[in-house]
Amino acid sequence: MLMLGRIGLWAGFLAALFAVLMLLIGRTPDKAGRQATRGGFYLTLASAVGMTVAVVVVVAAFMTKDYSFAYVAENHSTDASGLAWLYQLAGLWAGQAGSVLFWTWLMTLFSGYLAFKSSRDSAEGGTLGSAALMVMNAIIVVFCLLMVLTDGNNPFLVTPAEYYVNGQLIGAASQWGMSPLLQHWAMILHPPTLFIGYAGLAVPFAYALGALIVGDTSSRWVKEVDRITVFSWLFLGIGIGLGAVWAYVVLGWGGFWGWDPVENASILPWFVGLALIHSMTVYRRKGNLKGWTFILTAITFVMVVMGTFITRSGVVQSVHMFDKDTMAYTIFLSLMIVSLAAMVIAMLVRKNQLQNTSEFESLTGKDAMYFLNNVIMTLASVIILFMTMAPALIKRTYGVNQYEVIARIVGLIYLAILAICPTLNWGSTDRGTVWSRVKWPLAVTIIPLGLLVWEWLANLRPVYADMVQAGGETAKAFTMYGPFLYDAITLLGFALGSFLIVNTGALFVRGVKARKKATGESVLSSLGTILWKARRQSGGYIAHMAMGIVVIGLIGSVMYVRSGMYNLPNKPGESKIEIADYTFTFMGLTSETLPNGDVNSIATFNAEQDGKSVGVFAPSVTRFAVQGQSRHNASVRSEALRDIFFALGDQNDENVIPVEIKINPLIWLTWIGFALLMVGSALSTFPKKAPVAAPGGAGKKKAAKAR
User: Fold this and answer.
1) Torsion angle (degrees, nearest 10) of CA 408, 410, 411, 416
2) At what angle do helices 84-94 and 31-63 cross, to 10 degrees?
3) Please, are residues 291 and 347 in contact by the beta-carbon 8 Å criterion?
4) SS3 category, 643
5) Which terminus of the chain has a smaller tally of CB atoms within 10 A, N or C?
6) Which residues pair with 612 in a beta bridge?
7) How many angstroms separate the CA atoms of 686 and 534, rounded?
8) For residues 77 and 627, what is the distance between their CA atoms, to the nearest angstrom?
9) Is residue 457 over pLDDT 90?
């Protein structure tokens, strides 16, 4: 099977390479050019087929435990649970070589779809689709070069004879296998969703560069890729969210975001991609922000590649790091530089075609707010990128506290823009119009804000006081602003988040009322019509509401976490922990050996709240026999307004039970808000097909048309 996999890889590589050449020849506007272009389309599809063969071979090798593949030997799962077959499948993207293959394959699938779509639209030389495909195939060629030129990124190497005899791994290889930390359901889904986002965000860059190549700077290229861009950004977001879930329940530290360099690298293209989506909206609707939109496609793609560059180059240290790879360093750094340079040069060549259709009339218009959104998200991304790369650039490392200063300031500003933008008109908006649209939402905001302030006074503010009094490293995070600014950030965040939710909800209310009045439909029917037929706008508004929920959740689950680390005497029934209004009584430590030799140690604690039993916590540590590594399995109890997180540490002394407890308030608002953000983004992926009364004010005329 190794040979078949190599054939598939080389076929995909050579087909992409010749597709670039054929599509370049196809730039000539004659019959030969048209034939070359069609040949380029066929070769693009052939590249997808070749890469599919390579991927299927690797998956089959994992499923049959064919350890003659060095990549399978190094990354196979030793799990014995019902999820074992899924972990074997996840081996495809668990390691360095497989993840490059998987990413490349996804890009060939996107390219194959675009080739099929472009071939139906037109096969003439010099078209937008063919130019974009030329760029996509060039990117695929670069990724293929990494696999065919380096052993560390080639998934089709043979396991050395000294490690593999009669179908079994021997010697040091007997301890090879997938990292225990990766053997969790969230990690089955996290990498593929992330890579779908990465692969898809190459498409807007390819089309933007293709548009400049053919000299077509109309909104046509934006319309061709806006759905793919939102789709890719959506999957990237899902991947980030699943990674946060994994970090929360597997790594055993009780948090979901640690500002690790690779974590940062995944969220940077998500931030810039969000700016790109908003910029494309203005480009499509108003013919403005042309230069911004073109350069943002390149920055987004560069940020995507930056994640792989950081992961594989060794330029900065990360807990998610692969082995240092000099060739990957050179190839991906070159790809970033060439991509950005190509876009800048193409923009300079076509600068006369990048004039905006109109200028901003006022800072009180949606146009200006969209531009401000772009500036803020791009600037924040550049700052975070600099801080992430600082160890390599200026020999300085920034801590979590420094990142959170930036995140909180930017977050509040961005929340304010989201809250006010939907109330503005395109062009400009007078004060009277703004006030008429926000006065009732402002009044209603008092209700959720009042509830949040009560929660803050009753449960959150006491956490601040207790953690500061406890001192130590934890107190530093609470005191870095001083109490006044800490409280001010909290209350301002609660106020802006509440207003964003209420004001966005008011847009739906106004839209439903307008449609109900114009058509006589019921409230539910009117709402359903708006959600589905005006789904681009409705999905955006749902996403805005979700951001308000997320920020409120982040304030609680990041800024007001009560935590404690304890070394308990191993005395069942006697050792107790008291934290907040909980009392935890240690009941015993048991160990069980699983069929595959792994040992699972489970500590049991009875929990009482205000003297009443509320259940049992059973954190555990699994020690993997083959890899000789451990995985911490937290026990989490979820309540309406908080999580109680209980983790068992590594036991170095049989007389001592090390545990860590964290109480994470409002964390479920973070999870719910993020899920709602993905739902809104998914809805907006499908553009409306007919005019309809959209949220925020649709007249009878538009509503009648929608019927």
Assistant:
1) 130
2) 130
3) yes
4) strand
5) C
6) 609
7) 9
8) 10
9) yes
